Structure formats: C-alpha cells, structure tokens
Queue: 3 jobs
Job 1
Amino acid sequence: MDTQLIRWPSPAKLNLFLHILGRREDGYHRLQSLFQLLDQGDSLQFEVTDDSQIQLVTPIPGVPDEDNLVVKAARLLQKHGKGTKGCRIYLDKKLPMGGGIGGGSSNAATTLLALDHLWQLDLGIDKLAEIGLRLGADVPVFVRGHTAFAEGVGEHLYPVSQPGLWYLVVSPGIHVATKDIFTHPDLPRNTPPLRWQDYQFESTHNDCQELVCKLHPKVAKILQWLLEYAPSRMTGTGSCLFAVFPDKVQAERLLAALPEGCRGFVAQGVNYSPVHSLLERLKRLE
C-alpha cells in the first residue's frame, strides 16, 4: 500500500459532560469529563520529503501556519526524529473551529501518529501522548485513541466503553475561545468530584454551558430548540451542541430540520479511534 496517498482520519469528540473541580496555582483547571470519540471528522494526507521542511499545503484562512497545531505537532515530533525527513501536509477541514469538538487537537494527534509511522520513529503511544500534551490538554485522548474518562487537566485518561449512540452535532457558527471561558470570573469552579463508575448522562452537566449561553444568546436559543426533541448539551467550552439519539434515522430527521444560520452533522459514538484502526491495518501489511 502506498502510504503517501492515505487519508488519515482525524475524528471529532464530544465532552458528554464537563465538571470543573477547581483551579490550580498555575492557572490550569482540575476537571472531569467523558471524551466520546465519533466516527466523523477531518482527514489529513502526508507526503514525506527528504528535506527537513514542514509545509501545510492547505492552510486555514486567517490562521498563520506557525499557529496551526498540525504544523506545531510535525515540528515538535521532528525534534525526536532520527534523520532530516520533512513532509507536505494536506488538511481536509470539515470540523468547525472553536466548537469544542476537538478539531485542532485531533488534527495534531493524527499528525503525531501518522508521522511517527511514516518517519519510522516508533516512539510509542506514551511518548506521543507526552508530546501531545505540550500542544494542548485534549491532544492525548486522540493520541491514545479510546473513548475515555478524563481527570486532572485532561491528561489522566481511563478508557471506557460506551454504547454506540448517535449524535446530532450542531454548530451555531460562533467561535468561542477556550481561554476566554476558562479565565472568566463567572465560570463555576467547585463541582464535587465524580466516580466514573457512577457516570450517568442525566446526573451530569457542563460547567461551561451556562456561561457560554449567557455570552452568546444564539447558543442558548439553539440548545433550547434541541432540548425539545432529545437530551442535549453543549460540548467542551462550546459553541457546538449535541443531541443524543438511539438510532441514526431520528438524528438525521432532526438534522434536516435545523434552524437557519447553523449547520450540523450526524455521527455515531465509537470506543476506538478510526486512525488507530488504520494504523493497525498498515502494520499488518508491512
């Protein structure tokens, strides 16, 4: 198989809940969450080169390459390389930015996993997750590739299995900066800790949701609309929302009825990342 032509999946995630337990002295927050991986997302292609250049062939408008997590991940990984290999990267971006569904973090993780394989570094998942944490708190969950319960700042991950429910993910078309939410004085920071074995969707919440809805009335309006049809919640620091369904048909029916001014997609929850499934297939063919 020509690995130069492969499309590497970069799956989205949902925070099925997000509890903020407190704030550390370094400014980071102690939290608990359940990262649900989805079977939909972006994709990337990597063309290995014999020079040390990292080129993003498909830049994102308004985002300088040096600020793109894909480029940052490739350059960070390159420092651990045995040689001087570079690459040209093609990013097919479908997930909205600033939506709380992990687009940038997932792109970074897929870059680490793919280039570790293509550059033949074989650093191992633990090392890649350690590198990923330097890029962002959500990157390790994508590197490890399992739906997981998270603690700490998101770096302590415990793989869990969830039923393959269907989700309608809705983007209101609003960019919410994570930093703005986590530094806001009105953000709740005192939710009691939860044992992951006691998790139930109905008894959890998203501590960021009320604040984001207050700051962005459009998010609040769409959330109220979704709640009329299914259990619904905001993911991460927003602005994306999700509604939970037992089957694909119901989710697609509501997708077709979305209010004007927002867009969405239907995805199924998976317990194992599609990029890891691809890696396993590639290794079997070697």
Job 2
Amino acid sequence: MRKKDCFYLGKIAKKFSFKGEVLIFLDTDEPELYTELESVFVDINGHLIPFFIEKTSLHKEKFLRTQFEDMDSEEDADTIVGKDVYLPLSMLPKLEGNKFYYHEVVGLDAIDQRLGNFGTILRIVDNGVQALFEVQKDDAIILVPMIDEFIVEVNRENKSILFNTPEGLIDLYL
C-alpha cells in the first residue's frame, strides 16, 4: 500500500498494558467510526506495514485502545509507539455539499465570484491556528483562509471551488 493511496488516521501514542496493548490517538472528529477495524497500516521507516487487530475499544474519546495480533508484550508495543497510522482512502466516509477532505481539493480550480479563476489549489496549509488554501497563479502563491463564509460551492463535477473572498485579498498577492 502506498501512502498516497491512504489517509492519516492518527499516531500510536503510548503503551496501555503489559500485554502489548497500545493507545492510538485518532485525528478525527468521529472516532466511533473506527472501532470495528480489522487492520491498519503503520508507517515503519517510510513503509506502510499492515497490522491486524484482535480487539479495540474507545478510550477517553479520542484514543483507540488496540490489541494487535502477535503483539503480546510491552517490548513488542515499544517497537511501534510514536508511529503514524494510516487507512486506505476507500475507507473515508463520503462527504457532500461544501464539506471536503484536504486531499480532495488539491488540483481544483479556485474561482472567485468577482475575479473569476485565480489559480489552482496546490495544498492546504494547516498550522493548527488557521487552515489556508495555497493557490498558485502563474508564479504567485495566494493564501486564502479556509473560512466557511469564503466558500460558496465545492463543485466536484467541475473540479472547482467557488469563493467569495473579501475585496483586495487576492490582489495582495498579484
């Protein structure tokens, strides 16, 4: 499995018991969707390795208490603590309307209601404070805050996002 075909689910935060259980921090608003997993991919030295699950349960809302097959000791668990966990993109719930996953919008046309097409979305920059659309127009990089009021329509069919940005925001970059 290649990382580009997967999405980041979370990180193995710490050991939970002397029997090899671990706590996976789930980077999601809906952790309950991931309590019935059969397996996950763990990033070990840049390679996604499948780990099969014996049992899971939610722990303190955002953690998944997990017992992997063939991990029966603290020493076994030590080998994966701190590693990132991934699932195939096909396991993401479908979003509709103006909701989207960050990876979905990369490559879409950015269109402003007043100015028209102002570039192509390169990526989402999320530093934890304010997520930004990074849009390329010729040699310029335009940063548009990811604010619901700015997003008029996510059009998956036409591969574009229609924005209503404040006057002057895009002009700052051009």
Job 3
Amino acid sequence: MINDKYYSVYFDFNKSTPIENSTAAIDVVLSYLRKNPSANLDILGYADQVGESEYNEKLSNARANNVKTILEKAGIASSKLNVVANGADTSIQKDSEEARRLARRVTFRVK
C-alpha cells in the first residue's frame, strides 16, 4: 500500500514478465520511492493456484525479482528493495479465470 492505495503489476499465465498495460503501477511506485528516499519496499510476488506449489513459489519469486530489476534499472538501490515470494494466492476462487488472472501479480508494501 502506498499513500493509502494498492498498486499491482499483473502477469500472463506462466509468465514472469509484466503485461504491458500494468507497468503504470511500477511508475507510481518509482515516483514514490524517488520522493521518499528513506522508504524501503517489500515486493510481494504471487501466482495463481494452477500448478504445483513448488513451481508457484518459484514463479512468484521470479515475478517479484523481475519487478525489482526494473526498479533497480531505474536507479533505486537494491538495499531498499526486498523480494517476498508468496507462491499461490489461495484467497481467490481457483475455478474462476478472472480471479486467477488477478492472482498473478506483484504488489508492494512500504516499510
């Protein structure tokens, strides 16, 4: 959560590269970090419930690390960024394609 709003970066099924139209969230986070240089950030990666838990853990980690790399390339120090791989988001309806689409994401938590 940043300034009382949630920002998410979304991913296609089985992919760790953000979908093009969700990168605006990265821009908001980047702007926030530049304006608040003392802030640290958790980058929380998630997968949907399709597949084995071990695979989803790796995929959620890859997603969060890709977003971290984007922020680092934009000039944010690695020491300010913490990757958290959360694996599959089990709070969503597994049988709903729309819910699974929303589960494939990276969110942020300012510390």
